[in-house]
Each structure stands twice: as C-alpha cells, then as structure tokens.
Amino acid sequence: MARNKFDVDENLESPFDIKHFRRAMVYIKRQKKPMLIAFALSALSAAIGLSAPLIMQHVVDVTIPAKAYEPLVGWSALMLLTIVVSVVLATIRSRIMTKVGQDIISEIRIDLFKHLQQLPFKYYDDRPQGKILIRIVNYVNAVSDVLSNGIINFILEIVNLIFIAAFMFAVDVRLSFVTLAGLPVFLGVMLLIKTRQRRAWQAVSNKSSNLNAYTQESISGIGVTQMFSREQRNEGIFTRLAANYRFEWMKAMRFNALIPFSVDNLSTIVTALIYLVGLLALGPADITFGVILAMSSYAARFWQPILNLSNLYNSFINAVAYLERIFETLDEPVTIRDNPGAKALPPIQGQVTFDNVTFGYDSGLNILENLSFDVKPGESIALVGPTGAGKTTVVNLISRFYDVSGGSIRIDGHDISQVTLKSLRSQMGIMLQDSFIFSGTILDNIRYGKLDATEEEIIAAAKTVRADDFIREFEQGYLTEVNERGSKLSQGQRQLISFARTLLADPRILILDEATSSIDAKTERLLQEGLNELLKGRTSFIIAHRLSTVKNCDRIMYVSNKGIAEAGSHDELLARKGFYHRLYTAQKMEA
Ligand SMILES: Nc1ncnc2c1ncn2[C@@H]1O[C@H](COP(=O)(O)OP(=O)(O)OP(=O)(O)O)[C@@H](O)[C@H]1O
C-alpha cells in the first residue's frame, strides 16, 4: 500500500542547505575542463563587449567634435567587430555548455536509476510510482541548466560586475558611487523575500509531484476507471490537483516577478540620478556629454548582471527544491543488501529451512511469528489459507525481498542474510500472478531469464511450457512486439511466457504466487504438463487459491494465525478434517 498517496505532500527532512550544491559539485567537477573553456570564452566575450561604451565616449567627446570622418569609420568598424566577436564566442560557449548540461544530468539520472534498482520493496510499498518517476525524469531535467550554465553564469556575472565597476570607476568615480547607491536597497528586497520564495518553490515541487503521481496511477488503472465509470470523479480529482499546482506556481512566480520589478525600477532611478547629479550638481564644465553617455550606459549594464544574478538566484532556489528530492532518493538506504562478509551461495540442492521466523512489515504488527519448517530439496510445497494470512509474505522472505525480524531462513544450511543477494536470487525463479512483460519482442521477454540463451534454447523452453503454439500463431511469431502492459497477449499467454522465462533461468527453487489463477481450465490442463516439467527436481512453493492446482504437491501448508496451522499431503489433510478439509469442501461445493 502506498502510504504516501498522490494527494499527500512529501515532507522534506532537511531544510535549505548549501550542502546540496556542494554535493552537486561532485558531478560538476567531472566537467571541469569544458566548463573552464566555456568560462574563458564568456569572460573574453564580456570584456570585448564592455569596451563599446569607451569607444562611444571617445567618439562623442573627441572624434565627432573634431569632425574626423575617417577615424569615425574606423571606430564604427571596431564597434561592429566587438559585437561580432562577442556573439561568435557566446555561440561556441553555448554549444559547449549544452553538452556539459546533458552530461551532468545523464550522470545524475544513471546514479538515481542504479540506486532505485537496489532499493528494497519497502521503499516502493511506501510511495506511488509517479512520485518516483518525476524525480528521475522531470527533477533531473529541471536542475540541468542550473548545474551547468547556472554555475558558469553565476561566476561570470560576478566577474562581469567587477569589470563594469572597474570601467565605470575609470570613467568617473563620483557618478560610480551614485550607481552603487541602489545596491543596499536591492539587497534589502532580496533578504525580505528569500525564505518565502524557497517555500513557495518547494510547494510547487510538491504539487507537481502529486499531479504526476495521480496521472501515473490513473493511466495504470484506466481499465478499472472505465469499468466503474469513474471518469468524471477522477477528472474532478485531477482538476483539483492541477488547480493546486497552478495556485502554488502563480504564488511562486509572484515572488520571482518581484525581483526584476525592483531591479528595473532601481536601474531607472539610478540612471535618472546620474543625469541629475551629473548635469545639475557637478555641471557641464566638470562632466562632458560623453562621460554622461558612457556612465548611463555602464549603469544600465551594471544592473543587467544584478538582474541576471537575481534570476539565477531564483533558479538556484528552484533547483535546490529539486536537488533535495534527488539527493533524498539517492540517500534512501539500501536496507536489503549484501551484509559485510557475505559470501556467494554455492550451487544449491534446494533445502529450505525456516527457523523460528518472526516478521512484520511495520514494527509492532507481526504477520508471522516463530514460524519453523523444513523443506527437502525437490519437494513441492503448496501454501494455502485465508486471504491476508501471510502466504506471499513467506515466499517474499525466502527471496529476501524483506529481512526477517527474528529467527533465520537457511538454504542448504546457509543463512540467507549471510550470502550475496545475487547468488541467492539467481538460483530462484519467481512467478507472480501479474506476469510482467517488458517492452520488446516475445523472444526478448523469454530471454530475460538467461541473457545468453540461444534461440533454440528459448524455443525449447517455450515448447516445454506449451507456449510455442500460441506464439507461432502470431504473424511475427517470436519476434512479435509486446509492451509492458502485455498488449496483444492474454493473461494466460503472459503467464506462459513467464513460465518459459523461468524455465530458461533453470532455478533450483521455484516460487509460483497465484501464477496459474488466471489460466482457464483448458489452458491449465495444457499448462499442467509443462509445469510438471518445470517443477521436476526443483524445490517449489506454490500459492494458489484454487486447490485443484495444488492437490498433487508433496506437502500442503495451511497458513493462518501467524504461522502454519496444518501441514501434510492432500489426503492426510482431508483425513484430518481440519482447516484444509473445510476449505476444500467449500470450494468443491462452489464448483
Ligand atoms: N507491503 C506491505 N506492507 C504492509 N503490510 C503488508 C504488505 N504486504 C502485505 N501486508 C500485510 O501482510 C499480511 C499478509 O499479506 P500476504 O500478502 O502475505 O497475504 P496472503 O496470504 O498472500 O494473501 P492473499 O491470499 O490475499 O494473496 C496482510 O495482512 C497484508 O495486509
């Protein structure tokens, strides 16, 4: 059950912390060389661009009054050249940075994916898939520009600012101080809205995550929605989530808009002050027209990097909200992992021992208590019992999808918590009711069980489980494209494919959780033969509600009341006239 539902905002454990950026630096540092080149190009382009007002000042104060037309053409050509060169340099830099940005996000994405693949079932039990997807796709995209261009631009704008200030002071010190007077006012505005702005962007990321989770859930459950004519109601939920998102977005944007608004106003006021102070206070004798022109041009340029820096600050604030989510996922502990000193499980015979096993998904609520049993290699075990009794839990523990909270599980005498997960799971085959079909061909789907299997091996496996006939009926046979929802395939066919996949993997221990439940009686008979082949020589645990499918198992365990209430062969249990007998008789009467 996903406890963190689509309409429940995720809580962030850590407050705004520069450490997220420091951590992001690990990825950025790997791009040091291209970033340095891009930075040098940008600095050069900015310096060249900044010489324009100086040229302008010279032209206005010296060249034009002297009516020196030839030098005027020369200066104009030089101005044009500065523009062309700075545009060319900026274009090259932009190309380099696009690549850097993509390299960074692909590395983060790969790390996230690798980590997600290791996270235990518990992580997935606790949150909707949509909230996981949005991190790996949207959030990573959202931080890409900030982590690449953002960092460079940030440094660059500061350098730019220093350059502009230097040029400005070179032209006139007094008017430069007039320009700088606007800075404290601006910093005051920034301080005032900083925290609120960060919260606003966190709220946006929460709402977009909720929207994504619900969309994903709705697409997965489209069949049920249409079946129960829930479209209108779902539309209502979606509209509400979309409205929440829109509301938070608008709120966050209001904070964003405040910054350029203050910068624009301050820049206008400062320019007006330059004119006023320049012309009125200092007077034409002291300040030439060229100086005023150059100064107002520098003042306008001075506020540009400040506006850019504050926009960058906005992007940083957004990115931090996303980075927090990304790193939170990367920090999610891999609780089910190889324990220190874990050894590879040698090739097994298939003996399974539960020794006083106690387990609960949530602490304080045990599903199994002090469960002990021993299964011999090659023995077939049926797990039956009321719904919710813990049958799936038993098999999940054998595969170590969860760790026991008490006691131990041993395979051929090896405690499964002391062997590597890979060596354990590679010797097990698990088939669930909802056989997962990956996008690709039927051939690829069967090959999933053994990546180096030849076509002949695949076809042989399909034949054994009676899947070959229906596969050949498709126009493209084994090369028929299927997708994750298994379109083109019936439930039964999907299961036959997953049987073939498991047979190919040749596991010593086989787990079938309701694996035959959606196969009709005719297909089931067909499958039974194949299944018998599959079970031959393997230890198997079969969970089935339809008892007819498990009658032939060596031993039937009736799971109830946090343990095994009864165990024995079909005949023994019927003779005992206990739980199993009751269940069997009830099912027979239904049939
Ligand atoms: N991921 C989980 N998180 C929390 N509780 C869970 C989880 N999975 C199962 N449970 C609870 O554990 C109990 C046993 O579930 P389990 O799936 O093992 O039962 P089952 O016997 O296989 O049921 P069924 O026959 O309906 O498949 C149930 O009460 C269920 O609510």
TrEMBL record:
Cross-referenced InterPro entries: AAA+_ATPase (IPR003593), ABC1_TM_dom (IPR011527), ABC1_TM_sf (IPR036640), ABC_transporter-like_ATP-bd (IPR003439), ABC_transporter-like_CS (IPR017871), P-loop_NTPase (IPR027417), Type_1_exporter (IPR039421)
Molecular functions (GO terms): ABC-type oligopeptide transporter activity; ATP binding; ATP hydrolysis activity
Highest taxon in the source lineage: Bacteria
ABC transmembrane type-1 domain sequence ranges: 36-318
First-listed, main subcellular location of the protein, grouped into a coarse class: membrane
Keyword Transport appears in the UniProt entry: yes
A single cellular component GO annotation: plasma membrane
Topological relation to the membrane, as annotated: Multi-pass membrane protein
Keyword RNA-binding: no
Transmembrane segments: 35-60, 72-92, 151-169, 175-193
Cell compartments where the protein resides: Cell membrane
SMART domains, per the entry: AAA (SM00382)
Keyword entries, A-Z: ATP-binding, Membrane, Nucleotide-binding, Transmembrane, Transmembrane helix, Transport
Ranges of residues in domain ABC transporter: 352-586
Protein name from the UniProt record: ABC transporter ATP-binding protein
